TrEMBL record:
Residues 486-667 form the Acyl-CoA oxidase C-terminal domain. It comes from Danaus chrysippus. This is Acyl-coenzyme A oxidase. One of its GO terms (biological process) is lipid homeostasis. The keyword Cytoplasm does not apply. Residues 22-147 form the Acyl-coenzyme A oxidase N-terminal domain. Residues 290-451 form the Acyl-CoA oxidase C-alpha1 domain. FAD binds at T153, G192. Its cofactor is FAD.
Length: 670
């Protein structure tokens, strides 16, 4: 749709006058510097001027087929733009550039069918291929001569990768692998782009050679003819059907009937099958084939931050424009943003978007540093990265989904409109809580690491920095509550340590009573999930505080003040959310809790004048927000009416169903 130009709503204009800080300074902090901001804006200008974002009818009014076809059209032209103008004008060649990710949302209100090509296919080629394989597939994939996806999940198994049923059996006579789908439940299910779009696919299958199964490995498989796009003989492929979201993309199913691929199509960077069928196992670590999942989990923390920033921008701007009820009899209706309960719903969203964005950046740097260690042959830092990326992916996507839904509640009935964009943002983020490792499963992975860390610390060994609080706790360090940043972080670490200690004790007690380790672990999993969540909270709190302190060192005082107000709000909010835990594991008193409650309520008042400016500082263009409620000019009612008038349902004054059904019903002739 072409956005109509309106004058700024007077309430929003007044809000912006109240701002106490330089918005541009905060924008630069989150972009990573002035130059990055200007580069991002340049990219956005190119894409927005390309005309690619235009839809003749609103996306939500199209049929599923039309939405898919429209998204394919845009993905193709966007890919061309990335290869040509964006590279030439900005000098950017890197698909992972956050600016490209952000502006992609101006094209796709829902999702691009090419997401998995960039999100998993290309990263898997980079992470799992030998240098020879890389030379064959990477240039083609980057140049979009081949389009791919990542087919791991099956109808019967998603979480339990070792339980996957698809087989890849090596035939030494022909030097080929035979891919086969032995059962109904072995069909690949869910892979993005697989239904209709892609011609290649990374397939995860159980490797058999010389009669022995060596577990799951990755294979490059061409599934469709490059010219006709018809499925190749031996391939059964299609779309799995309508979903809660992801409606403009095509999630697919895939079955193999003894389908043959050359030996060289096994991705052999870590494990190999030689010509005679001899298996060479990975030299360094058994789970290196899971590396793409770790990469995506890291990027999903960024997704949580970005999507939450969109939702809270929409809800805060709307709340500044919307007037409802009265605070005192006969007074004019206030902006709903003036209600403390509304501030309570929304300001935590702003603070959380900051916390997650800074944690995402920190996690990305940790990921890059672990990759560089691994290139030198050192896999020692991988377990900690796996534990961190697992819990952060779980908690950040889950919190973001809850807070986005809270933003929708904050917009009342209008938030329920698809044109608000809140339902789209929610359904996208709700999926991220499940895919790439379900919430519970990933927290249990982190719990496994925490229990091991506890055992190591007990044995007097040094543990990694993110769990060094365990050693302090084992040395008998008692928590004394202080309502400072450091004090609160320490108390949250004491909560995590206390919960891990209880898990270890429960497991040991259960084993003493005769259970084996697996059963003792299983019966403790409710506590283990809780302990991993507590650990994750302490990591986020600490990272957020450290990063704000580091990044605002040379900022103006006013920016320091407002950024720190948000940090304090975040710490107070979580203290109040977790009073039960803190009373149990730290020395917090009821008086301290009263103080934190008052501090929290005062902070809402302090932040209130800057609320609109703070969401403006996410620098999200209207074309990215796609929201009748959240546009920069605040012309909510004009846009809602505009959307209603453009609704294809209103194209004819009387719908044909009246003549076909209602009239005969009215006349008793049906
Ligand atoms: C053109 C326009 C485009 C516009 C777009 C622009 C840009 C796009 C860019 C980005 C977009 C952003 C994001 C979106 C991208 C893609 C996402 C979309 C869709 C999602 C796709 C998927 O969902 S793919 C399928 C994912 N599946 C899973 O995650 C399954 C989860 N299950 C598991 O991971 C595992 O089964 C398990 C970990 C639960 C258990 O594995 P298992 O093998 O059984 O291992 P265990 O026995 O439990 O553990 C043994 C040992 O290994 C350690 N370990 C486990 N995993 C890892 C790992 N990943 N790394 C390192 N180590 C690992 C584990 O801790 C144990 O260690 P110890 O023995 O030492 O304890
Ligand atoms: C929108 C979307 C896109 C996707 N895209 C892709 C893709 O491109 N490629 C791909 O391969 N896959 C894809 N997936 C699949 C996704 O990765 C899986 O759905 C996800 O990993 C969860 O696995 P599952 O569906 O088997 O859930 P299940 O494992 O069946 O989980 C169901 C419930 O059981 C619980 N549970 C399972 N095991 C345990 C356990 N050991 N202990 C305790 N609780 C347990 C879970 O916590 C959960 O509550 C996609 C999924 C979605 C929704």
């Amino acid at each position: 749709m072409v956005l109509k130009k309106y004058n700024i709503n007077p309430d929003l204009a007044l809000e912006r006058q109240k701002c106490t800080f330089d918005i541009e300074e905060i924008i630069n902090i989150f972009d990573g510097g002035k130059e990055k901001t200007s580069q991002r804006r340049k990219i956005e200008d190119v894409v927005l001027k390309s005309g690619l974002c235009h839809d003749d009818v609103p996306e939500e009014c199209m049929s599923l087929k039309e939405r898919y076809e429209n998204a394919v059209r845009k993905s193709c032209f966007f890919s061309k733009l990335m290869k040509t103008e964006l590279q030439e004008i900005t000098g950017i060649e890197d698909f992972e550039t956050p600016a490209i990710r952000r502006i992609a949302d101006a094209l796709f209100k829902d999702i691009s069918p090419f997401l998995l090509h960039l999100g998993m296919f290309v990263p898997t080629i980079i992470g799992q291929c030998t240098s020879e394989q890389l030379m064959i597939w990477l240039p083609k994939a980057l140049d979009l001569q081949i389009i791919g996806g990542y087919a791991q999940t099956e109808l019967g198994h998603g979480t339990f990768i070792r339980g996957l049923e698809t087989t890849a059996t090596y035939d030494a006579d022909t030097e080929e692998f035979v891919l086969h789908t032995p059962t109904l439940t072995a069909h690949k299910w869910w892979a993005g782009g697989l239904g209709k779009t892609i011609n290649h696919c990374i397939v995860v299958a159980q490797l058999y050679t010389k009669g022995v199964c060596y577990g799951t490995h990755l294979f490059m498989v061409q599934i469709r003819d490059l010219d006709t796009h018809m499925p190749l003989p031996g391939i059964k492929v299609g779309e799995i059907g309508p979903r809660m979201g992801f409606s403009s993309a095509d999630n697919g199913f895939l079955g193999f009937n003894n389908f043959r691929i050359p030996r060289n199509n096994m991705l052999m960077k870590h494990a190999q099958v030689q010509k005679d069928g001899t298996y060479v196992k990975p030299a360094r670590h058994g789970k290196l084939t899971y590396q793409t999942m770790v990469f995506v989990r890291v990027t999903l923390v960024n997704e949580a931050a970005f999507n939450l920033s969109k939702a809270v921008t929409i809800a805060v701007r709307y709340s500044a424009v919307r007037r409802q009820s009265e605070m005192r009899p006969n007074e004019p209706e206030p902006q709903i943003l003036d209600y403390p309960t509304q501030q309570h719903k929304l300001f935590i969203g702003i603070a959380t978007a900051h916390a997650f964005q800074l944690t995402a950046n920190w996690l990305w740097n940790t990921f890059k540093s672990v990759l560089s260690d691994m290139k030198k042959g050192d896999v020692g830092t991988l377990p900690e990265l796996h534990a961190l990326s697992s819990c952060l992916k779980a908690v950040c996507t889950s919190d973001a989904a809850l807070l986005i839904e809270q933003c929708r509640y904050a917009c009342g009935g209008h938030g329920y409109m698809l044109s608000s964009n809140l339902p789209y943002i929610y359904s996208f983020v709700a999926a991220t809580r499940t895919y790439e490792g379900d919430y519970t499963i990933l927290l249990l992975q982190t719990a496994r690491f925490l229990v091991k860390a506890w055992e190591q610390a007990e044995a007097g060994k040094t543990v990694t920095p993110t769990v060094s609080y365990i050693s302090r706790s084992l040395k008998g360090e008692k928590n004394s509550w202080r309502s400072t940043d450091e004090g609160i972080i320490k108390s949250f670490q004491a909560v995590a340590a206390g919960k891990i200690a209880l898990c270890v004790k429960s497991i040991r007690d259960r084993m003493k009573s005769g259970l084996d380790y697996e059963d003792a672990w299983l019966l403790t999993t409710v506590q283990l999930v809780d302990a991993a969540e507590a650990h994750c909270r302490s990591v986020i709190l600490e990272t957020y505080c450290n990063e704000v302190r580091r990044l605002t060192k040379s900022s103006s005082d006013n920016v320091k003040i407002v950024m720190h107000q948000l940090v304090t709000l975040y710490l107070s909010y979580w203290t109040l959310q977790r009073t039960g835990d803190l009373l149990r594991y730290s020395s917090i008193s009821e008086k301290d809790i009263d103080f934190m409650q008052r501090q929290y309520e005062e902070l809402l008042q302090h932040i209130r004048p800057n609320a609109v400016a703070l969401v403006d500082a996410f620098d999200l263009r209207d074309e990215i927000l796609h929201s009748s409620l959240g546009a920069y000019d605040g012309r909510v009612y004009e846009r809602l009416m505009e959307q209603a008038e453009n609704n294809p349902m209103n194209a004819e004054p009387v719908n044909q169903s009246f003549h076909k059904y209602i009239k005969p019903l009215l006349q008793g002739k049906l």
